[in-house]
Design brief:
Length: about 325
Amino acid sequence: MTRAVGVALVSIAVLAALAAPPVAPHEMDAHFGGLLNAPPTVMRIQGEDAAWHAPFIYRWRLVNQLEQRYEEDRSARVPLEWFSGGHLVRSSNEGSAPLLLLGADSYGRDVFTRLLFGARTSLALAATAALGATLIGAILGGLAGFAGGLIDDGVMRTTDFVMVLPTMYVALALRAVLPLVLTGPQVFALLAAIFAIVGAPFVARGVRAIVRSERRQEYAIAAQALGASDLRLLVRHLLPSARGFVAVQITLLVPAFIIAEATLSYVGLGFPDPVASWGTMLHDASTNIRVFADCPWLLSPAAAMFLVVLGVNLVLQKSRPGVKSLL
Protein backbone atom coordinates (compact mmCIF):
# COMPACT_ATOMS: atom_id res chain seq x y z
CA MET A 1 0.00 0.00 0.00
CA THR A 2 2.83 2.39 0.89
CA ARG A 3 4.58 1.74 -2.40
CA ALA A 4 1.34 2.22 -4.31
CA VAL A 5 0.92 5.67 -2.75
CA GLY A 6 4.47 6.58 -3.74
CA VAL A 7 4.01 5.37 -7.30
CA ALA A 8 0.74 7.31 -7.53
CA LEU A 9 2.35 10.55 -6.32
CA VAL A 10 5.27 10.31 -8.73
CA SER A 11 3.02 9.24 -11.62
CA ILE A 12 0.67 12.18 -11.06
CA ALA A 13 3.60 14.61 -11.10
CA VAL A 14 5.04 13.14 -14.31
CA LEU A 15 1.65 13.00 -16.07
CA ALA A 16 0.86 16.58 -15.01
CA ALA A 17 4.17 17.72 -16.47
CA LEU A 18 3.64 15.87 -19.75
CA ALA A 19 0.04 17.08 -20.12
CA ALA A 20 0.71 20.68 -19.10
CA PRO A 21 -0.23 22.43 -22.40
CA PRO A 22 -3.79 21.03 -22.71
CA VAL A 23 -4.52 20.77 -18.98
CA ALA A 24 -3.36 24.29 -18.08
CA PRO A 25 -6.18 26.84 -18.57
CA HIS A 26 -3.79 29.55 -19.86
CA GLU A 27 -0.44 30.11 -21.47
CA MET A 28 2.58 30.08 -19.18
CA ASP A 29 3.23 33.83 -19.51
CA ALA A 30 -0.40 35.03 -19.51
CA HIS A 31 -0.93 38.08 -17.26
CA PHE A 32 -4.16 39.38 -15.71
CA GLY A 33 -3.36 42.90 -14.61
CA GLY A 34 -6.41 43.44 -12.43
CA LEU A 35 -5.96 40.21 -10.46
CA LEU A 36 -2.65 40.58 -8.66
CA ASN A 37 -2.47 37.97 -5.86
CA ALA A 38 -6.09 37.02 -6.53
CA PRO A 39 -7.25 33.96 -4.53
CA PRO A 40 -8.17 30.63 -6.18
CA THR A 41 -11.34 30.55 -8.25
CA VAL A 42 -13.99 28.17 -6.95
CA MET A 43 -15.78 26.01 -9.52
CA ARG A 44 -19.49 25.74 -8.68
CA ILE A 45 -22.55 23.89 -9.87
CA GLN A 46 -25.12 25.62 -7.62
CA GLY A 47 -25.87 29.32 -7.94
CA GLU A 48 -27.30 31.97 -5.66
CA ASP A 49 -30.78 30.94 -6.75
CA ALA A 50 -30.14 27.46 -5.24
CA ALA A 51 -30.63 25.95 -8.71
CA TRP A 52 -28.21 23.50 -10.28
CA HIS A 53 -26.22 24.57 -13.32
CA ALA A 54 -23.40 23.40 -15.52
CA PRO A 55 -20.00 24.11 -13.90
CA PHE A 56 -19.37 27.85 -13.62
CA ILE A 57 -17.38 30.42 -11.67
CA TYR A 58 -17.89 33.92 -10.32
CA ARG A 59 -15.72 36.89 -11.26
CA TRP A 60 -13.37 38.28 -8.64
CA ARG A 61 -14.00 41.93 -7.74
CA LEU A 62 -11.19 43.97 -6.17
CA VAL A 63 -12.50 45.48 -2.92
CA ASN A 64 -9.34 47.01 -1.46
CA GLN A 65 -6.38 47.89 -3.67
CA LEU A 66 -3.95 48.39 -0.77
CA GLU A 67 -4.79 45.10 0.94
CA GLN A 68 -5.42 43.34 -2.38
CA ARG A 69 -8.65 41.97 -0.99
CA TYR A 70 -11.16 40.39 -3.38
CA GLU A 71 -14.81 39.36 -3.25
CA GLU A 72 -16.86 37.23 -5.60
CA ASP A 73 -19.23 39.13 -7.87
CA ARG A 74 -22.25 36.85 -7.66
CA SER A 75 -24.46 38.99 -9.83
CA ALA A 76 -23.60 36.93 -12.93
CA ARG A 77 -22.39 33.42 -13.53
CA VAL A 78 -19.43 32.83 -15.84
CA PRO A 79 -19.81 29.45 -17.61
CA LEU A 80 -16.83 27.20 -18.24
CA GLU A 81 -15.82 26.03 -21.70
CA TRP A 82 -14.56 22.49 -22.12
CA PHE A 83 -12.08 21.40 -24.81
CA SER A 84 -11.88 24.92 -26.18
CA GLY A 85 -8.84 26.54 -27.76
CA GLY A 86 -6.61 23.54 -27.10
CA HIS A 87 -7.30 23.58 -23.34
CA LEU A 88 -9.20 21.09 -21.23
CA VAL A 89 -11.26 23.73 -19.45
CA ARG A 90 -11.23 27.51 -19.28
CA SER A 91 -13.51 30.42 -18.54
CA SER A 92 -15.88 31.72 -21.19
CA ASN A 93 -14.76 35.24 -20.21
CA GLU A 94 -10.98 35.09 -20.04
CA GLY A 95 -10.62 38.86 -20.09
CA SER A 96 -12.28 39.75 -16.79
CA ALA A 97 -13.06 36.38 -15.16
CA PRO A 98 -10.26 33.88 -15.86
CA LEU A 99 -10.20 30.45 -14.28
CA LEU A 100 -7.54 30.57 -11.53
CA LEU A 101 -7.59 27.16 -9.86
CA LEU A 102 -4.66 28.05 -7.58
CA GLY A 103 -5.05 31.82 -7.63
CA ALA A 104 -2.70 34.36 -9.19
CA ASP A 105 0.79 35.51 -8.23
CA SER A 106 2.01 39.07 -7.65
CA TYR A 107 2.28 39.59 -11.42
CA GLY A 108 -1.25 38.40 -12.11
CA ARG A 109 -0.17 35.06 -13.60
CA ASP A 110 -2.11 31.83 -13.11
CA VAL A 111 -0.30 29.80 -10.42
CA PHE A 112 -1.86 26.50 -11.50
CA THR A 113 -0.69 26.96 -15.08
CA ARG A 114 2.82 27.87 -14.00
CA LEU A 115 2.87 24.97 -11.55
CA LEU A 116 2.21 22.51 -14.39
CA PHE A 117 4.77 24.06 -16.72
CA GLY A 118 7.18 24.39 -13.80
CA ALA A 119 6.87 20.65 -13.24
CA ARG A 120 8.10 20.09 -16.79
CA THR A 121 11.15 22.28 -16.21
CA SER A 122 12.06 21.07 -12.72
CA LEU A 123 11.46 17.37 -13.33
CA ALA A 124 13.23 17.41 -16.71
CA LEU A 125 16.21 19.21 -15.19
CA ALA A 126 16.40 16.81 -12.24
CA ALA A 127 16.08 13.72 -14.45
CA THR A 128 18.69 14.99 -16.96
CA ALA A 129 21.15 15.89 -14.20
CA ALA A 130 20.61 12.56 -12.42
CA LEU A 131 21.26 10.60 -15.62
CA GLY A 132 24.36 12.72 -16.32
CA ALA A 133 25.68 12.22 -12.78
CA THR A 134 25.03 8.48 -13.03
CA LEU A 135 26.76 8.17 -16.40
CA ILE A 136 29.83 10.17 -15.34
CA GLY A 137 30.01 8.45 -11.97
CA ALA A 138 29.64 4.95 -13.45
CA ILE A 139 32.40 5.57 -16.00
CA LEU A 140 34.83 7.07 -13.47
CA GLY A 141 34.02 4.52 -10.78
CA GLY A 142 34.30 1.62 -13.20
CA LEU A 143 37.69 2.76 -14.48
CA ALA A 144 38.98 3.43 -10.97
CA GLY A 145 37.83 0.08 -9.62
CA PHE A 146 39.08 -1.89 -12.61
CA ALA A 147 42.42 -0.21 -13.30
CA GLY A 148 43.50 0.60 -9.74
CA GLY A 149 46.86 2.25 -9.20
CA LEU A 150 47.32 5.86 -10.22
CA ILE A 151 43.99 5.99 -12.05
CA ASP A 152 42.14 4.84 -8.95
CA ASP A 153 44.01 7.28 -6.74
CA GLY A 154 43.47 10.17 -9.17
CA VAL A 155 39.76 9.54 -9.55
CA MET A 156 39.22 9.19 -5.80
CA ARG A 157 41.16 12.37 -4.98
CA THR A 158 39.14 14.23 -7.62
CA THR A 159 35.86 13.01 -6.15
CA ASP A 160 37.05 13.99 -2.67
CA PHE A 161 37.81 17.50 -3.94
CA VAL A 162 34.38 17.88 -5.56
CA MET A 163 32.54 16.55 -2.50
CA VAL A 164 34.18 19.05 -0.11
CA LEU A 165 33.62 22.08 -2.35
CA PRO A 166 31.24 24.66 -0.82
CA THR A 167 28.67 24.33 -3.57
CA MET A 168 26.77 27.53 -2.78
CA TYR A 169 29.88 29.71 -2.88
CA VAL A 170 31.07 28.06 -6.07
CA ALA A 171 27.66 28.75 -7.63
CA LEU A 172 27.85 32.39 -6.54
CA ALA A 173 31.33 32.76 -8.01
CA LEU A 174 30.23 31.08 -11.22
CA ARG A 175 27.20 33.35 -11.52
CA ALA A 176 29.41 36.40 -11.06
CA VAL A 177 31.53 35.59 -14.12
CA LEU A 178 28.61 34.63 -16.35
CA PRO A 179 26.66 37.10 -18.53
CA LEU A 180 24.06 39.11 -16.66
CA VAL A 181 21.17 37.70 -18.72
CA LEU A 182 20.94 33.99 -19.46
CA THR A 183 18.34 32.30 -21.64
CA GLY A 184 16.23 29.38 -20.46
CA PRO A 185 18.23 26.73 -22.39
CA GLN A 186 21.50 28.21 -21.08
CA VAL A 187 20.30 28.02 -17.48
CA PHE A 188 19.04 24.47 -18.05
CA ALA A 189 22.40 23.33 -19.46
CA LEU A 190 24.35 25.14 -16.73
CA LEU A 191 22.34 23.71 -13.86
CA ALA A 192 22.35 20.22 -15.38
CA ALA A 193 26.15 20.37 -15.67
CA ILE A 194 26.58 21.63 -12.09
CA PHE A 195 24.27 18.98 -10.65
CA ALA A 196 25.86 16.20 -12.71
CA ILE A 197 29.36 17.15 -11.53
CA VAL A 198 28.26 17.44 -7.91
CA GLY A 199 26.33 14.17 -7.95
CA ALA A 200 28.84 12.07 -9.90
CA PRO A 201 31.30 11.46 -6.98
CA PHE A 202 28.63 9.70 -4.91
CA VAL A 203 27.93 7.31 -7.79
CA ALA A 204 31.61 6.88 -8.64
CA ARG A 205 32.64 5.81 -5.17
CA GLY A 206 29.92 3.18 -4.93
CA VAL A 207 30.54 1.78 -8.42
CA ARG A 208 34.29 1.67 -7.73
CA ALA A 209 33.77 -0.43 -4.61
CA ILE A 210 31.43 -2.84 -6.41
CA VAL A 211 33.73 -3.26 -9.43
CA ARG A 212 36.77 -3.87 -7.22
CA SER A 213 34.87 -6.49 -5.25
CA GLU A 214 33.34 -8.22 -8.28
CA ARG A 215 36.64 -8.37 -10.14
CA ARG A 216 37.87 -10.94 -7.60
CA GLN A 217 34.87 -13.21 -8.16
CA GLU A 218 35.26 -16.49 -10.00
CA TYR A 219 33.08 -15.52 -12.98
CA ALA A 220 35.28 -12.47 -13.68
CA ILE A 221 38.49 -14.49 -13.38
CA ALA A 222 37.02 -17.18 -15.67
CA ALA A 223 35.96 -14.62 -18.29
CA GLN A 224 39.44 -13.11 -18.31
CA ALA A 225 41.03 -16.57 -18.58
CA LEU A 226 38.86 -17.34 -21.60
CA GLY A 227 40.29 -14.33 -23.39
CA ALA A 228 37.77 -11.57 -22.64
CA SER A 229 39.32 -8.14 -23.19
CA ASP A 230 39.50 -5.64 -20.36
CA LEU A 231 36.79 -3.51 -21.98
CA ARG A 232 34.45 -6.48 -22.45
CA LEU A 233 35.08 -7.67 -18.90
CA LEU A 234 34.29 -4.25 -17.49
CA VAL A 235 31.25 -3.43 -19.65
CA ARG A 236 29.62 -6.86 -19.98
CA HIS A 237 30.39 -8.40 -16.59
CA LEU A 238 31.50 -5.95 -13.89
CA LEU A 239 29.44 -2.80 -14.46
CA PRO A 240 26.11 -4.70 -14.72
CA SER A 241 26.68 -5.90 -11.16
CA ALA A 242 26.24 -2.28 -10.04
CA ARG A 243 22.77 -1.95 -11.59
CA GLY A 244 20.95 -2.06 -8.26
CA PHE A 245 23.19 0.57 -6.71
CA VAL A 246 22.89 2.86 -9.75
CA ALA A 247 19.08 2.55 -9.78
CA VAL A 248 18.95 3.57 -6.13
CA GLN A 249 21.28 6.52 -6.75
CA ILE A 250 19.10 7.82 -9.58
CA THR A 251 16.00 7.75 -7.39
CA LEU A 252 17.94 9.58 -4.67
CA LEU A 253 19.44 12.20 -6.97
CA VAL A 254 16.22 13.23 -8.75
CA PRO A 255 14.45 14.67 -5.65
CA ALA A 256 17.75 16.06 -4.38
CA PHE A 257 18.21 18.00 -7.62
CA ILE A 258 14.62 19.27 -7.53
CA ILE A 259 15.36 20.82 -4.15
CA ALA A 260 18.77 22.05 -5.32
CA GLU A 261 17.19 23.90 -8.27
CA ALA A 262 14.92 25.75 -5.86
CA THR A 263 17.90 26.61 -3.66
CA LEU A 264 20.03 27.97 -6.51
CA SER A 265 17.15 30.18 -7.61
CA TYR A 266 17.89 32.27 -4.51
CA VAL A 267 21.45 33.02 -5.65
CA GLY A 268 20.56 34.20 -9.14
CA LEU A 269 20.80 30.90 -11.03
CA GLY A 270 17.08 30.56 -11.62
CA PHE A 271 15.27 30.46 -14.94
CA PRO A 272 14.39 33.84 -16.50
CA ASP A 273 10.86 34.97 -17.29
CA PRO A 274 8.67 33.70 -18.77
CA VAL A 275 10.12 30.22 -18.09
CA ALA A 276 8.46 28.67 -15.05
CA SER A 277 10.07 26.28 -12.61
CA TRP A 278 9.22 25.34 -9.05
CA GLY A 279 12.37 27.05 -7.85
CA THR A 280 11.71 30.38 -9.54
CA MET A 281 8.07 30.33 -8.39
CA LEU A 282 9.19 29.91 -4.77
CA HIS A 283 11.79 32.62 -5.25
CA ASP A 284 9.14 35.03 -6.51
CA ALA A 285 6.81 34.12 -3.65
CA SER A 286 9.52 34.64 -1.02
CA THR A 287 9.89 38.31 -1.97
CA ASN A 288 6.51 39.04 -0.35
CA ILE A 289 6.41 38.69 3.43
CA ARG A 290 2.60 38.51 3.27
CA VAL A 291 2.61 35.22 1.38
CA PHE A 292 2.33 32.90 4.37
CA ALA A 293 -0.63 34.72 5.88
CA ASP A 294 -2.48 36.24 2.93
CA CYS A 295 -1.46 34.29 -0.19
CA PRO A 296 -0.69 30.68 0.83
CA TRP A 297 -1.53 29.45 -2.69
CA LEU A 298 1.79 30.92 -3.85
CA LEU A 299 3.52 28.18 -1.84
CA SER A 300 1.96 25.42 -3.94
CA PRO A 301 5.35 24.65 -5.61
CA ALA A 302 6.72 23.78 -2.16
CA ALA A 303 3.81 21.39 -1.65
CA ALA A 304 4.44 19.84 -5.08
CA MET A 305 8.13 19.37 -4.29
CA PHE A 306 7.26 17.78 -0.95
CA LEU A 307 4.83 15.33 -2.55
CA VAL A 308 7.31 14.29 -5.26
CA VAL A 309 10.12 13.76 -2.74
CA LEU A 310 7.71 11.88 -0.47
CA GLY A 311 6.56 9.69 -3.36
CA VAL A 312 10.12 8.80 -4.35
CA ASN A 313 10.97 7.99 -0.73
CA LEU A 314 7.93 5.74 -0.34
CA VAL A 315 8.83 3.81 -3.49
CA LEU A 316 12.48 3.61 -2.51
CA GLN A 317 11.90 2.52 1.08
CA LYS A 318 9.53 -0.24 -0.02
CA SER A 319 11.75 -1.59 -2.74
CA ARG A 320 15.10 -0.97 -1.02
CA PRO A 321 14.56 -1.18 2.75
CA GLY A 322 18.24 -0.67 3.51
CA VAL A 323 18.47 2.71 1.83
CA LYS A 324 18.33 5.73 4.08
CA SER A 325 15.39 8.04 3.43
CA LEU A 326 15.85 11.56 2.10
CA LEU A 327 13.33 12.96 4.51
